[in-house]
Design brief:
By secondary structure, the chain is α/β, with parallel strands linked by helices. 16% of the residues lie in helices and 15% in strands. The protein is built from four helices and six strands; from the N terminus they run αβαβαβββαβ. A three-stranded parallel sheet has the order 1-3-5. The chain has a three-stranded parallel sheet with strand order 2-4-6. It starts with 56 loop residues before the first helix and ends with a strand. GO terms for molecular function: rRNA binding; structural constituent of ribosome. InterPro entries: Ribosomal_uL15, Ribosomal_uL15/eL18, Ribosomal_uL15/eL18_sf, Ribosomal_uL15_bac-type, Ribosomal_uL15_CS. Belongs to the universal ribosomal protein uL15 family.
Length: 149
């Protein structure tokens, strides 16, 4: 078998529609495009996105540098400086911070931020740590455990 032998079956290919060739051909005069109007004229009609003169969607929407996160993660945040008031060798969790009153409300899993100074050794169990917070806790002789959210 050769490439030129690979042809479609007879009558499987439909011939193209020849419009505007007289009334007997079935698509004479207006060529099946209706009567008058923009879409009946020759050419391609309107460009993509054109809405008939109305301000198109791509010009109506605001142009943003970024899109907002639809389901953002909400954390209960505590700075390292607040943990400095706790006694040494304390295990710090969200529940223990609520008990001591350093945190008044639970807005999700605990995240430790790095603002402030720490000089007591603590075992901190939180869902997330910033790099500076982890560095300050470990420099003070404590440990950081990433607990499940």
């Amino acid at each position: 078998m050769r490439l030129q032998d690979a042809v479609p079956k007879p009558s499987s290919r439909k011939r193209r529609r020849r419009v505007g060739r007289g009334i007997a051909a079935g698509q004479g005069a207006s060529c099946g495009k209706g009567m008058r109007g923009q879409k009946s004229r020759s050419g391609s009609g309107t460009r993509p996105g054109f809405e008939g003169g109305q301000m198109p969607l791509y010009r109506r929407v605001p142009k943003l540098k970024h899109f907002t996160v639809i389901n953002p993660k909400h954390y209960t945040i505590v700075n390292v400086g607040k943990l400095a008031s706790l006694p040494a060798n304390t295990e710090v969790t969200l529940a223990s911070l609520l008990e001591t009153g350093l945190v008044t409300a639970s807005n999700g899993p605990l995240k430790i931020l790095g603002d402030g100074e720490l000089n007591v050794s603590l075992t901190v169990k939180a869902a997330a740590f910033t790099a500076s917070a982890r560095q300050k806790i470990e420099a003070a002789g404590g440990s950081c455990d990433v607990a499940g959210s």
